[in-house]
Write a structure and sequence with these properties.
It is built from nine helices and 13 strands. The strands form two sheets. Strands 1, 2, 3, 4, 5, 6, 7 and 13 form an eight-stranded mixed sheet that branches. Strands 8, 9, 10, 11 and 12 form a five-stranded antiparallel sheet that branches. Strand 1 and strand 2 form a beta hairpin. By secondary structure, it is of the alpha+beta class. Helix content is 37%, strand content 29%. The relative contact order is 0.16.
Length: 336
């Protein structure tokens, strides 16, 4: 495992394309069904060629990735080994006149979109401009955002690799009930990507168990996973699973107000706290304009086991897609 972690670290820090093939071989070996889940929506990969292409794109276009080797968590469950690697990704933002023009064109597109009410469109425009028109310090701005790399191995080969970033559940980047049709189109595309590899038809009891766990974890009113949305690796007494779906939950404006006002308790400058409040007001009003019942896309990975004749969840992790579009989603700002 140390060799794999070092390869990931070296590849991302040096952006050395020649390390991609060695990393893939060290990870997946001859695995007939490799799985890689990226941070953004529609980033589901089940073949060597597409995984290689993702790594190439990361090295060309993604921010710098820094792995924290001091806090890696490893646990074993039956034939599986779960490795969780904490990291940071540094995203770079620069603003030019071209940036403002691009956003102006985007706002015009929103106005003329056939989807959504005028109120929803105004709330989206307000959210975009709250980010774009915040005070800018001179120079290039970098944001260090948390990133986790999860690996599930069986014996000596990786079954799954997932990149994920923390999402504020009250303001997720991807809502399937967004007034824009784009989120639903991407979700339908994900269903087509996973369907050829899904094998949950004869394991509806496990799917029910997984949905119940997610419902409890997310305090959701409804969790939706179909057999053609989940991939299982089945052993004598253990099952590794990976799936996609959506859940629904009700968020009131009162809960949103409470979330916004927590910024007054931050250890930040008064000016920074006020920016965070303005940013979150715009985001929460946008989500409130879409609707109190939120329909949120997710990915789930985990391990189930049969003990004393009963099926149970030994490990589960739920992540949400993260779109790197707007800065200041976190407070980790570095200016040079």
């Amino acid at each position: 495992m140390k060799h794999i972690i070092q390869l990931i670290k070296n590849m991302y820090e040096t952006r050395n394309q020649t390390l991609i093939e060695p990393l893939y071989d060290a990870l997946y070996g001859n695995q007939p069904r490799p799985i890689l889940i990226g941070t953004s929506n529609a980033e589901l990969y089940f073949q060597k060629a597409s995984i290689i292409k993702l790594f190439q794109g990361d090295l060309e276009n993604w921010g710098n990735v820094y792995i924290d080797e001091t806090d890696i968590n490893i646990q074993s469950i039956g034939p599986y080994q779960i490795v969780s690697i904490p990291a940071k990704i540094r995203q770079t933002f620069r603003v030019t006149d071209e940036t403002y023009q691009d956003f102006s064109d985007y706002i015009k597109d929103i106005k003329h979109s056939p989807s959504g009410s005028d109120y929803q469109k105004l709330m989206l425009i307000q959210q975009l401009t709250a980010h774009l028109l915040s005070d800018r310090q001179v120079g290039t701005r970098y944001y260090d955002w948390d990133l986790t790399i999860d690996i599930i191995k069986k014996e000596h080969e990786t079954f799954l690799l997932m990149f994920s970033m923390p999402i504020d559940e009250l303001t997720p980047d991807v809502r399937l009930d967004d007034f824009s049709d784009q989120s639903m189109k991407i979700y339908q595309h994900e269903l087509k990507l996973i369907a050829p590899y899904a094998n949950g038809d004869n394991h509806k009891d496990l799917i029910t168990l997984i949905t119940n766990h997610i419902q409890t974890l997310k305090q959701a009113s409804n969790v939706h996973i179909e057999p053609n949305q989940i991939i299982l690796d089945i052993n004598d007494h253990h099952i590794s699973f990976m799936g996609i779906g959506y859940y629904q939950k009700h968020i009131t404006l009162e809960e949103r107000m409470h979330n916004i006002m927590t910024h007054f308790h931050e250890d930040e400058t008064p000016k920074r706290r006020l920016f965070n409040i303005r940013r979150d007001i715009s985001q929460h009003l946008l989500h409130h304009a879409i609707g109190d019942i939120m329909t949120i896309q997710f990915r789930v990975i985990g391990i189930a086991a049969i003990k004393e004749g009963k099926l149970g969840i030994e490990y589960i992790k739920v992540s949400l897609p993260f779109n790197i579009v707007l800065e200041e989603k976190t407070n980790d700002l570095i200016v040079e």
